[in-house]
Design brief:
alpha/beta, 10 helices, 35% helix, globular
């Protein structure tokens, strides 16, 4: 029996000056493509009233902005899923996020210079064993949950490289998978057990890169992947793959076998979107795990400014553009809508 999966679109967004453009995107583009969930990667671009020490910028979203966007999206049969980066992605390169800037004692790599760049460091993490980090993170999540009246929270958890660092006196020498498990379970306890919400996270750190033939971005090469056996199975795993692979995409089926709900995620390459979505549907049928095939996600890593929003809307109206990335992104969104990828 066929079931309709969630259709989701992701973008980074945290500038209240662009709210009118985002509303246009919702009503003029996403609603026409049957998008049911809009994942807003606002991270910490939000005014946290409980913690004014978190300096998030003069144009960060406010509680009022969040309520306005939520109400507008729901009028178009769309739920907003806020994404706040947890554990990893606490800044870029050696820079620190608002959380680590206010609380440098939470930094997993405190000795790394603020000016450091890749490959010395990709991005910082917070220390999952620091006794004071979770209460503040929970406060932040609570404000976001309330402001967006959220039904689902995305906690990030992708590309976590700074974990069990020798620079951290608490984590040094610890098992990376165990630390990752603790961080995920801490968030799960608060979001799912206490708030009774759905929780999403990226799946790359749960993939054995060598086994499945992925690189160190789409998979893990340090042993974190062992965590896949011990995480709560009600988590929705967003399994992202952006490049063409002749050997296909085996991990959506793998995650379903492990008991997780899965949403394969593409970017703008149309051939990847078609193959990834088709293989996921086939994997669900072969394994009789149709109930684990949660839906399809199109991610957008474009810099969303006024021009980008305008061009994307023009593409949706059939107008010509020289921006091939946005053109293909819209086409991938159309592909995600196709019922043939349902099960």
């Amino acid at each position: 029996m066929s079931q309709t999966q969630v259709i989701a679109f992701h973008l980074r967004f945290g500038d209240r000056r662009l709210i009118p453009e985002l509303k246009q995107l919702i009503s003029q583009v996403l609603a026409t493509q049957a998008v049911s969930h809009l994942i807003l990667e606002l991270d910490k671009s939000f005014v946290f009233t409980k913690h004014p020490e978190l300096k998030t910028g003069s144009h960060a979203l406010t509680e009022e902005d969040a309520r306005e966007l939520t109400n507008f999206a729901r009028k178009h049969q769309m739920e907003i899923v806020p994404l706040m980066q947890c554990l990893g992605h606490q800044g870029w390169g050696g820079s620190r996020s608002a959380l680590l800037t206010a609380y440098p004692e939470f930094d997993e790599t405190p000795q790394t210079p603020l000016t450091a760049e890749w490959p010395e460091i990709f991005c910082r993490s917070w220390c999952p064993l620091h006794p004071d980090v979770n209460p503040i993170v929970y406060d932040m999540l609570d404000e976001i949950i309330e402001a967006f009246d959220a039904k689902t929270i995305h906690i990030g958890m992708d590309e976590v490289y700074e974990i069990a660092s020798d620079e951290c006196t608490r984590c040094r020498g610890k098992n990376r998978a165990d630390l990752f498990i603790k961080a995920v379970k801490d968030m799960h306890q608060h979001i799912v057990k206490i708030h009774d919400l759905d929780m999403m996270m990226w799946g790359d750190r749960l993939i054995d890169a060598e086994r499945f033939g992925y690189d160190n971005w789409e998979g893990d090469t340090f042993g974190t992947y062992h965590a896949v056996e011990q995480l709560p199975k009600d988590i929705v795993i967003l399994d992202w793959h952006y490049d063409e692979r002749t050997q296909g995409y085996p991990t959506p089926g793998y995650f379903m076998e492990k008991g997780y709900r899965v949403m394969p995620a593409c970017w703008y390459k149309n051939n990847v979107a078609k193959q990834l979505f088709e293989e996921t549907a086939e994997a669900a049928k072969e394994r009789s795990t149709e109930d684990k095939y949660f839906g399809r996600l199109v991610t957008s890593w474009h810099h969303w400014d006024t021009e980008a929003f305008t061009v994307f809307e023009q593409i949706a109206k059939g107008q010509h553009t020289d921006n091939l990335e946005l053109k293909q992104l819209y086409q991938s969104l159309q592909i995600s809508k196709d019922a043939k990828y349902n099960v």
